[in-house]
Every structure is written in C-alpha cells, then in structure tokens.
Amino acid sequence: MKPAFGAAICSVGLFISSCAVYFGGNEVTSIPAPATFVVRNANIYDPVDGRVGTALAVRDGKIVIIGSDADVQSLIQPRTHVLNADGGVVLPGLHDAHGHLLNLGFELERADLRGAKSEAEMVARAAEFAKKHADGWLLGRAWDQNLWIHKQFPTHSALDAATGARPAFLVRVDGHAGLANAAAMKLAGVGRSTQDPPGGRIIKDESGEPTGVFIDDAMGLVARAIPAPGRADRTRGYLNAQKESLAAGLVCVHDAGLGIADQEVLEELDREHKLKLRIYGMALADAAPAAARAGDRYELRAVKAYADGALGSRGAAMLEPYSDDPANRGLLLIESGDFIKLATACADRGLQLCTHAIGDRGNRLVLDAYETVFKQKFGTVSRPDLRWRVEHCQVVAPADFARFKQLGLIASMQPTHATSDGPWAPARIGNQRMEGAYAWGKFIELNIPLAFGSDFPVESHDPRLGIYAALTLRDPGSNDNKRFGPGRTLTMKETIAAFTTGAAFAAFHENDWGRLKKDFVADLTIFDKNFVDDSDPRAVLNAKVIRTIVGGEVAYPAP
Ligand SMILES: [Zn+2]
User: Fold this and answer.
1) Which end of the chain is more exposed for a tag (fewer CB within 10 A), N or C?
2) CA 55 from chain center: how many Å?
C-alpha cells in the first residue's frame, strides 16, 4: 500500500522496529522505534576499536546505535530504561572462560571461616552459621591455623561443644585438610582403628584417637558420609552462583565440567527461562553429548578432559622433576592412547575439546594427542576451525608455544593463578621454567587466541581481580607489591579483549558476542568509573559494577 503524500506508514509503536516516512513515494527519512535500554554520559569501550562513543541504545536484545548522547535521544521513550553512567565505562559483557558454577553455589552455603583469628573465632562463626541454616551437615570453608597464635591444628572438642549431635566438617583454606566433629566421625565410621588411606593422613592424639583433622585423601573418609547433592540442591546452587556472577559483572561463564545431573538441571532452568546468565558448558568426558546442543542461555558443544593435576600439590606433570622435590615429576591423569580415543570421539561428534593441562609435560601430551588426531582424521596438523582449547596452559616448554599456533588452538588462561601462585611457584619449578609460566604475553605475540577466566571458586569470580593481575602481574593484597613472574604484562585493550572477544571466540560466538558494535547482542558490563583510561591500574579495583545487561535485559541489579 502506498501512503498518501506526506503521510507516515505507521505511528510510532513500541513493537515496530522502524517505519519509513514517504514524500511523494520516495523514502526520505525514518522514525526509529524506541529503545528498550539506553546508556548515556558514558565511555563506550570496544576492545577492538577502543572508545567509540558516549552513548549506546539497545532494542530487541541487540545494540542498535553507538554514538553521542544526541544520537540516542530520539530513541528514548517513556518505556525506555535510561541510565546516566555519570562518566563510567561500558564494556562488552565480561566472560569468565573457565569457572565452576555449582562449586561456587555450594561454597555460598558453607560457613565462611576465612580470616578467623583463633580456633575460638572459627568455632563461633561456624556455630553462628549453624543457627541460620537449620538442616543437615554443617559445612565450612577456609580456616587457616597459620593465622592463630599457636599455629597448631584445631581439634574436634571445641567444635563438638558448639555443634552437639549435628555433624560438621570444616575445610582448610587450601582444601587440603578438614576438621570433623565427633558426630561427623561417628557417621563416617572413623575411629582409633581406622588406618591412613593412600595419599592421606588421619591426625591422632597421644592416646591414638583421631583429633578430627584429616589431611588430603583422608578427607574422603569423612566426605563420603555427606549426602550427595540432589536435584533441588543443584538447582539452588546454580541459581545462587548465577546471582553472584551477574553481580560481579559477568554475562557468561564457561562452566568447566558438567556431569549428566548438571546438564539436566541447566536444561530445565533454561527451558523455564530462569537463566539470565549465559552458560557455555563443557561436559565431562563420561557425560559428553551425542551432538552439540544450542539453547537460549545454555549451550553445550564442548567436552572437558584432564591431562594432569595442579602445581600447588605437585600434581602437574612436568618434563623434569620439581625444583623443590627432585624425585617428583607430577602425575598424568590420562594415558595417551585413551586421550587420543577421546579426542577422536569428540572430532567425530563435532564437539570442541577443552583439556586441562598445567605442567609442561601435561601440555605436551595434549599438543601431541591433538596433532595425532588432526593428522589421522583430517590429514593435516592445523584445524583452527575446531577451536580446540587448552585450559590453563600454565607451564609451557619454550618449544611448544609455536605448536599452539600451528595446531590452531585456543589458550584458556586465568590471570589470578599467576598472582596466587606467585609466592611459591618459582621455588617449585625454578626460574628457567618460570619463563614459560603464566605466559599469556607469549600467546598474544604469536597471535594465538586467548580467553581469560578465573577457575572460580579456586580463585575469586570477580573479574576485576583478573584484569588487575593481567595488567600488573601483582597481587593487590600483598604488602610488598612484588611483581610475579618474568612474563610481560598485558595492555588494557589486550586484557579486556581476552575477557570478551577472546572468550566469545572460544565459544564460537565472535560474530554476535563480545563487541560493542551495531547488531551485536546487547551484553554489557557497566562500571561507575572509567578505569580503562586511568593510568593507575588499581583504578579497576575501585570501580563498581552498576549494571549487568544480558541480551538487552537488566540482569543486575535484579529487576
Ligand atoms: Zn577448573
């Protein structure tokens, strides 16, 4: 239908994206439909193009305009959510490319004993928590006897007095020891006749009775008595972790290791539209899907495998022995033949393989296996289109960096690991190997795609800490402010890119996620301060998330 001279085809409607105005049959201008969300008086920062404007408008979940405050004015209508950012910064929504949502959710349901200055304070905090959480086992985390005057391990008696018949298990800050009360030991069937299991130790007093402290693999003797989480527990855990993640400014978490029960819960939450956060899943190898699964906020097309352990417990597989333990080269967790079989199965099903590798021997095993599969299956060594990832890439032999490029792999790394491990890592692996440790600068120089995360709850899920660590290689909490590791620090642009475009690429979404660009999905993290243009890297630590926008909707603060 051709409208009469000078008439508009439609009046401005909320659900019509735009409508043309015709003069004598020629389209001359366009009245835009209103935006659902507008941010102005801001620094709009794209990790590729840099600062691209002061205002941004969103409609139908996508970015429709980036420009000046005047450019977005005509899109503001009564129903538009308008944010004056007051000079803050708008980033593409930040990802955590390697986290563990359910573990974060469960940690939130445990008594937080971090920083307790005495055994009495630890017990008092646990008892306080128990009062507020009436049912079942009392679980706690993060006590550290090194903060107490006598620096001795606690015993179960003080805890018994506060908890009575309710079983309690409080885990030490490093996760390598736990304190059980008498009720917990009774339920677990542990007593004076119980022997140390391999790789663990039960601390006993002079009379031979367990004191309540269980070291390393002995923790399992108590943990096995704790009921396994049910579906409702998992659902609650994911929802709590989602809330924390959105509040920290994350729009997407790459969840590194989903079992079948996790997948079922996430599928249900996604179906019921209870996910606001995007979750890019990696299935555990024994729970790998038959094919990739796309959803609204939850996708599953990746598989998580493990090559070795971790550096802190000397479980990372090293080519040469540990510098502080000359008989030990760490542990491979998978045999090369089995790994090649797994990788081949992933390639057959079109799944992305993401393999945990910390030590230089662990990383080499992964590189060798990926190369073997590429050659056998595709007759080439380079398959960048598969986007297979190495998770952590923490210590890499000098000769192996170029192989990541050659094979077409993605390095998925966690900047805060460098600053957390900093105090002891050089002693553990020596200065020479430190050259290839936490070396994200080397990956960038070789143009190897880099995705950043935190491995939460091993580290904090707060991306500001990761940004600061990448920019400085320093620990914000340390008094001497010493720089860790010999590698180069990253620029702000490189750092933000690894948390946004890099992570989006690692999730096959570089064409719709991770940029502030017209027609990209409106995932935004908005901070109250423009730390990206601040010469002091500490500025990021003082910036606060004021909005987390996912798919154009305000996800934090919760509406
Ligand atoms: Zn992890």
Assistant:
1) N
2) 29
Rounded to the nearest whole angstrom, what is the distance from the C-alpha of residue 392 to the centroid of ligand 1?
A: 8
How many CB atoms within 10 Å of residue 91?
A: 25
Nearest to 87 by CA among 122, 126, 43: 43
CA 455 – ligand 1 centroid, Å = 5
Q: Which CATH class is domain 231-513?
A: alpha beta
Give 303 Cα–ligand 1 centroid separation in angstroms. 13
What's the CA-to-centroid distance between 466 and ligand 1, angstroms?
Answer: 15
Reading the block at residue 452, the tokens are 């950043």
- H/E stretch holding 525: strand 524-527
Asked if CATH classification 3.40.5.10 holds for the domain at 34-93+514-559, the reply, yes or no, is: no
Distance (angstroms) between ligand 1 centre and the Cα of 276 equals 22
Flag whether the pTM goes above 0.85: yes
Q: What does the domain layout of the chain look like in residue ranges?
A: 34-93+514-559, 138-223, 231-513
Q: Which residues contact 263 (CB under 8 A, 6 or more apart)?
A: 281, 283, 287, 289, 300
For the stretch 1-29, pLDDT in tens is 333 333 333 333 333 333 333 333 444 45
Q: How far is it, in rounded angstroms, from Cα 153 to Cα 151?
A: 7
* CATH architecture, domain 138-223: Roll (3.10)
Q: How far is the CA of 544 from the centre of ligand 1 (A)?
A: 26
Please give the distance, rounded to the nearest whole angstrom, from the Cα atom of residue 101 to the centre of ligand 1: 10
Burial code (b: 16+ CB inside 10 Å, e: under 16) for 466-489 equals: bbbbbbbbbbbeeeeeeebbbbeb
Distance 98 CA to ligand 1 centre (A): 6
Surrounding residues of ion ligand 1, Cβ less than 5 A: 256, 455
Q: How far is the CA of 256 from the centre of ligand 1 (A)?
A: 6
**pLDDT per residue as tens digits for the range 442-477:** 999 999 999 999 999 888 999 999 999 999 999 887
Q: Span 147-163, mean pLDDT?
A: 93
Distance 99 CA to ligand 1 centre (A): 6
